[in-house]
Amino acid sequence: MRWPWSREKRQAPADSTSSTAYTDARIAAILAAAGGDAAADVGAIAAAEIASGLWGRAMASASVTPDTPATRALTPAVLELMGRELVRKGECLFEIAVMDGEARLLPVSWWDVYGSYKPESWEYQVTLAGPDQTSTRRVTADRVVHCRYATTPTEPWRGVSPLAHSRTTSDLAAMLETRLSQDVTAAVGTLIAIPANAGDTTELQSQLAALRGKVALVPTTAAGWDQDGRAGAPRQDWRPERLGSNPPMSLDALRSNSARHVLAACGVPIELVEPSEGTGAREAFRRFLHATISPAAALVRDELRAKLDTPELFLSFDGLFAADVQGRARAWRSLAGNEASLDPTTAARLVGLAEE
């Protein structure tokens, strides 16, 4: 296979290099943080990181076959980024490049798509970010790998993340995280109310500040502070009251429930996150691999086959599926046993013990 060195290239506008896009992005982030919007971003909550991390690490573990100059560009770092971005953004874009005689997939930080309803007519305005400058250029569709999740008929050129599809739940989870963060970071300390005629308390304040578990001798307040000491001690003064975080239990419970829903929207069984017994955890992992990672990897695989000119490209997760090998063996025995109607080869393929 001669790709990509001999592929016919369509003409595209010349490259342009600047730091404008990167600067604009940084300014937007600073303004959002100043306005308080950044803290309510669903991408900043733990549930989103758990889901994207699981997707990314699972994709990074994939074995890529066959071994060709094109497929060598699919490094674990590239596959991991694909998995994470599919959860967080619903899509990811890489420019296909040849650098030092080797194929590379360069992650695109920003892009826009132009063209008709035919995907082969699309052109991409892409921006690649660097430490102190960016490179912006326009490339044709055959020069990029564009992985998309949950596309819609109205915008087939865009992927939609599970976090965006479940926007109401995601926004709720983000707002609850923000409220709890604000509560926890509030002022913490102890307030002591004193009578108006308590006199000079400077020395007492110094003793209390330096107490730190030690002993301090202070004047008694048993006789009160009124005239001639005839009145009893004030009932509320001199009683310490702690000031600090005390979120209601209902808020914490609602936060936990919303986080579970975010994980479910991303195809992550809650048993993978919360403590569970071994059988339940293994079953949850099996469901995650079969119902989430395998279908998502199939979407990525088809895009890679088309853009890397490798129809036989395959992403294997045998290392992960090994955790479920006993269950698949039992399923194979039930399908290919004495009273079963399937031949052993077909049964092995159906339960994932043989390649398609």
Shape: extended
Proportion of residues in extended strands: 15-25%
Helical/strand content category: alpha+beta
Q: Total helix count?
A: 11
Biggest β-sheet description: 4 strands, antiparallel
Helix content: 40-55%
Q: State the end-to-end distance.
A: 23 Å
Query: Could you tell me the radius of gyration in angstroms?
Result: 30 Å
Could you describe the 3D structure shown?
This protein has 356 residues and is α+β, with helices and mostly antiparallel strands. Helix content is 40%, strand content 16%. The protein has eleven helices and eleven strands. It has helices spanning 20-35, 46-60, 76-88, 162-165, 167-184, 202-209, 249-265, 278-307, 318-321, 325-336, 344-350, and strands at 16-18, 63-65, 91-99, 102-107, 110-114, 123-129, 134-140, 144-148, 189-192, 240-243, 314-316. The strands form four sheets. A four-stranded antiparallel β-sheet has the order 1-7-6-5, covered by helices on one side. The protein has a three-stranded antiparallel β-sheet with strand order 4-3-8. Strand 3 (91-99) and strand 4 form a beta hairpin. Helix 2 runs antiparallel to helix 3 (76-88), helix 5 packs antiparallel against helix 7 and helix 10 (325-336) runs antiparallel to helix 11. The protein is extended and about 90 Å long.
Supply the key terms.
356 residues, 16% strand, three-stranded antiparallel sheet, alpha+beta
SSE diagram, text form:
Elements: E1 16-18, H1 20-35, H2 46-60, E2 63-65, H3 76-88, E3 91-99, E4 102-107, E5 110-114, E6 123-129, E7 134-140, E8 144-148, H4 162-165, H5 167-184, E9 189-192, H6 202-209, E10 240-243, H7 249-265, H8 278-307, E11 314-316, H9 318-321, H10 325-336, H11 344-350
Antiparallel strand pairs: 1-7, 2-11, 3-4, 3-8, 5-6, 6-7, 9-10
